[in-house]
Amino acid sequence: MAPHPVSAARPRRPDSAARPHTIPRLADNGRVNDAGSPSPLAPLLTDEGQALLAALRDYDPGQELGVATRLRRDHPAELVSAALTQARLRQRAVAKFGAEDAYRMYFTPNGVEQSTRASVAAHRAARFAELGVRRVADLCCGIGGDAIALARAGISVLAVDRDPFTADVARANAEALGLASLIEVRRADVTEVDTSSHDAVFVDPARRAGRGGRGPKGGSGRIFDPEAYSPPLSWAVGAARTARYAALKIAPGIPHEAIPEDAEAEWISDHGDVKEAVLWFGTAPGARRATLLPQGAALLGRGLPDPRVRKTGRWLYEPDGAVIRAHLVAEVAEELDGGLLDGTIAYITSDELRPTPYAAAYEITDELPFNLKKLKALLREREVGTLTVKKRGSAVEPEELRRRVKPSGPNAATVFLTRVAGAPTVLIGAPAGV
């Protein structure tokens, strides 16, 4: 039988029975963190740790028990556990960082969850570079995702986090990606860091209970009150105003009335999913912007009044989430020469098809008052078996609708559960071009 790929990662030591399984202390390798104590990351940075990580790159987490048992015959149990944990985190991180980076980087569980997606971080770094920024203080840096993007844009970064292990991970990531010359990682309370020598400040406050932007980025439970961020949004705004330029990462659902008057607010989506909002200082005070990645389309608000409400046209447009969050539906409706189906719902309708990056278009074939029996009969008549359900302004859940209408047949359709001029309505159609 061929040797298991993981068990073959490191030859079995001839004296393994007599040699105790101990993990080299960080100090043994000249690796002591800013707190002056050995880092939990140290064992993974040894030759033995690196060999294990390489062998575990494509392992199946479902087989972890068997893999761990085999590895512990030849490696310290603590090292095996650390390597398996890191291998799982790297696999999860591929979606955000891409395989090339993720399998070279190091992560914490909450670091994977909370880190900025690489495409979003790259966009923000590009904006800083376009502003002529050369030195950025990255406060609450976490595992260093934004610092990496900034460094790749040619910007020198001071990356700060209070948690020793998180700072160790950020430092290891800078080294692993060849960016250590541009990224200085410092363990410190961000409220005590002097940023006066930097062109810009970037702050990513903790928005989860137990995370602590001035401490470890961990814990769970989203925080919606900006003053409950750690550090509070008011402190971050104050820090931003001391710099020539600044960007503050905030939750996309922040109330518009909580946005400072001297800040530009940008909502960013990636492949249609809203990822974050950013408050920019030193750019365009009071501006509202929606940025859609990966295409990079950017829509600026013009202060238009709410669109008119009109009857359903042939085409329905579903604005991108960043457009909706930025309150720029009126700008898209004007571009499409359209109006709203209902004054409180962000569905735009128009009589003609106009290409736009800011909304997905659907051709509407049917409109009927909400009635499950009639809808089921119509779908059966059309032989619809593939049913996409979208809702806005309706209490009916898509899965419940599918269960009730029991779609069956070779055809596909999109159903919109919404309101038209206040009345519960069902619209049926298909994406433009289908």
Description of the molecule:
Strands 3-2-1-4-5-7-6-8-9 form a 9-stranded mixed beta sheet, sandwiched between helices. A 7-stranded mixed beta sheet has the order 11-12-10-13-16-15-14. The protein contains 13 helices and 16 strands. Helix 6 packs across helix 7 (145-152). The protein is 28% helix and 24% strand. The protein is of the alpha/beta class. Strand 8 and strand 9 form a beta hairpin.
Q: What is the compact description of this entry?
A:
Helix content is 28%, strand content 24%. It has 434 residues and is of the alpha/beta class. The strands form 2 sheets. The chain has a 9-stranded mixed β-sheet, sandwiched between helices. Strands 11-12-10-13-16-15-14 form a 7-stranded mixed β-sheet.
Model regions low in confidence, pLDDT < 50 over at least 5 residues:
1-32, 210-220
How many strands in all? Answer: 16
Report helical residue fraction.
25-40%
Pattern of helices and strands: HHHHHHEHEHEEHEEEEEEHHEEEHEHEE
Gyration radius, in Å: 26 Å
* Euclidean distance between termini CA atoms: 52 Å
Number of helices: 13
Strand residue percentage: 15-25%
**Average pLDDT number:** 89
**Order of strands across the widest beta sheet?**
3-2-1-4-5-7-6-8-9
Structural class: alpha/beta
Largest sheet entry: 9 strands, mixed
Shape summary: flat
Layout of strands and helices, then pairs:
Elements: H1 47-55, H2 64-71, H3 77-97, H4 99-102, H5 109-114, H6 118-130, E1 135-139, H7 145-152, E2 156-161, H8 164-176, E3 183-187, E4 200-203, H9 233-240, E5 245-250, E6 263-270, E7 273-281, E8 288-293, E9 297-300, E10 315-319, H10 321-325, H11 329-336, E11 339-342, E12 345-350, E13 359-369, H12 372-381, E14 384-391, H13 398-405, E15 411-420, E16 423-431
Parallel strand pairs: 1-2, 1-4, 2-3, 4-5, 6-8, 14-15
Antiparallel strand pairs: 5-7, 6-7, 8-9, 10-12, 10-13, 11-12, 13-16, 15-16
Helix pairs in contact: 6-7
